Amino acid sequence: MSFHPGRRREDPEINFIPLIDLLLVILIFLMVTTTYSKFTELQVDLPSANADQAAERPAEIVVAVAADGRYLLDAGTPQVLAPEALVAELVRAARGQREPVLVIHADAGARHQSVVAVLEAARQAGIARVTFAAQGGATGGGAR
Fold this sequence. Notes:
By secondary structure, this protein is of the alpha/beta class. Helix content is 31%, strand content 22%. It has helices at 17-33, 37-40, 86-94, 112-125, and strands at 60-65, 71-75, 77-81, 101-106, 129-132, 135-136, 141-143. Helix 3 (86-94) packs across helix 4 (112-125).
């Protein structure tokens, strides 16, 4: 039974263009938000610590770097030094010692250039072993 004679019924048509647009937007979103763990992970081999104590402590030369850029060298008697005199005093303090270790106690407010100047003075004085002192733990006790 045909209620409309002469009219032919058209087949339904599905428009795929909006579907393709939606899939491209989703694809772009997924590409942007995907994390690439290959590029974000860093393989680091950390050294293991031993509980064995060293039989002999090396000779230490302690240099403190104040917040205002002054240096305090503790080689027998503490003395405040100018940056220019630091190399000569490090050479004098290292004389007669076998492979001394320079321990730098830098104030948290000290400029980086002041610390780099101590490292440069150590290089010029021939001191190859350098370490930095740090505050231990949340209690604020102990150095290094």
